[in-house]
Specification:
Number of strands: 22
CATH class of the largest domain: Alpha Beta
Mean pLDDT: 93
Structural class: alpha/beta
Radius of gyration: 30 Å
Strand content: 15-25%
Shape: elongated
Largest sheet: 7 strands, parallel
Length: about 525
Amino acid sequence: MKILISDKLAQEGINILKSVKEFEVDSRSGMKPEELKGIIKNYDALIIRSETNVTADIIEQADRLKVIGRAGVGLDNVDLKAATKKGIVAMNTPAGNTTSTAEHTMSLILALSRNIPAACASLKSGKWERSKFTGVELYGKILGIIGLGRIGSTVARMAKSFGMKIIAYDPYLSMEVAGKMGIDMMEFADVLQEADYITIHVPKSHETKSLIGEKEFGLMKKTARVINCARGGIIDEKALAQALAEERIAGCALDVYEKEPLAADHPLLKFDNCVVTPHLGASTSEAQINVAIEIAECVRNALLGRGIINAVNFPSVSAQEYKILEPYISLGERMGKFAGQLVNGRIQGIRITYSGPVTNQKLAPVTMALVFGVLSPILGETINLINSVDCARERGIKVEEIISTQEEEFLNLVSLEVISDKETFSLWGTLSANNKPRIVKVNKIYVEAIPEGHMLFINNHDRPGIVGAVGTILAAAQINIGSISFGREEQGGLVVSVVNVDSEVPTQTIEQLKKTKDILFVKPIKV
């Protein structure tokens, strides 16, 4: 497998990848988009930092690509929609630069409070302007944090050591958790109104673009100071420049910008109370090594099937969790393919119900495997595990996942219902004692079928001699039977038979089986 590293990466991370004999690693930083677009089709994984923009055009050419790994927190330079549609896992390293970014945030807060950059420049120019650079203390001040993820929480802990009071806005964090951290949770507007310092730690998205603009600056104290070490574009820079010019806030400190590198004539550069650094949040030697090691390990494990973590478009599961889920993922895919080849009509919905101890696991990968299995006979190579649920939704197919607490006849049970405009086709699946996939119920009829390889699905009346007739016809065609599983509604009623065979059954043999007395339906299946 070939891995391309298109930005500078610490050698420690490269060494991890090169130590795997299955990998061929190419480091080619500084490529232009057209150059990357021309060679990406040759690679199974791409590792980037902030310099490479992985656009939809590039992803469209990535026929082999399975993983995009970003050595850093954000993934705004990757077209996630295109990656998901193509079935490519996109992952980042949310923990690797936590400390360095949090420390840089505190550095900017201190530099802004004590006028350090301006004082340094003044002294180096030969002046001694001690009274000009009187600052303010952090002790007793209110720090408002927008976003209490890893970095925001670390900033809160550091700021407390300065005697600051912490308030925060994060709609995805419970009051209880924040209370244990000693943080007062407030509404967004209340944080802006009360804080002496406002620091931003949210990802850049459609919802957070220009999160702080003219209206928000109007809510702040005139003594407020704003810090952004997250992503450029979260603060409206035009509105920020206007707020500084009109002295509506006391100052700002920025490490990130709407457009990087920052233009020499940018209006923010003329303000002495605007401290700026060139995107240095993760620029410590420790952070560079940490994110390189972390992304190398993530990509290695994903390519080798050892689990997927830190993915943003696929449920993250550790190697230990993946080991538990792997047989269920296999079961789900096989059940889906089995049902997808048998259901009649236009599929409108897929309902999946889990019961038993397996419900304690992260089941999203199993759901994705089930949906992939159902739709792959229809969509072929355009669908895969990563994009399966998105493909279903694009086609108006409702995917429903249910966790059941009801005790069933099997310890761990996966129930699949495929709803079409003509019928609802249902399957029950579980694992055997040796963790092998088994189908144990088809619609209302119990079976003990092995969903593997070539199979024949047969409906027939419960009459003597059917099994013998099927065996005779297959033998005449030199088709060896591996196993047969059958079940019936009642004596003399409808029978479901699943016949595992060693090779594909010729069309003429299928037609001969269909003409056999008391056989109602025959369909070859392959999973």
